[in-house]
Design goal:
alpha+beta; single chain; 3 helices
Length: 110
């Protein structure tokens, strides 16, 4: 189950966030949680695995240009399905926005 989706840039700024379940963090602490997650993911080299564990979640992320697409999933979920989901989602955004950019992501709303 996907609990939340975050899109952050290389500087660690959140460009999009959508929480589908309550993650046990108050809305005021979400920015701290997102910054902590960004500090873990951004410095990782591309040669490392794009799956990390933090607290009770498994995080799957993909980097496209200057954006990181991060999904928080349950530990028992299949990571490869989520990576494929992110790939398909980015391809759809790319077609919809005709070469998606960070500014396009900032104005997404679901």
């Amino acid at each position: 189950m996907i609990h939340f989706i975050l899109i952050i840039n290389k500087q660690g700024r959140t460009r999009f966030s959508k929480y589908f379940t309550e993650i046990g963090v108050s809305p005021l602490q979400r920015s701290i949680f997102e910054a902590e997650l960004a500090r873990k993911i951004i410095p990782r080299p591309e040669s490392q695995c794009s799956i990390i564990f933090h607290e009770q979640y498994k995080f799957v992320y993909r980097r496209y240009a200057s954006l990181f697409f991060i999904l928080g999933i349950s530990p028992e979920d299949n990571e490869f399905e989520v990576i494929e989901f992110v790939q398909n989602w980015v391809e759809i955004l790319n077609v919809y926005f005709d070469k998606v950019r960070e500014l396009d992501i900032s104005f997404l709303s679901f």
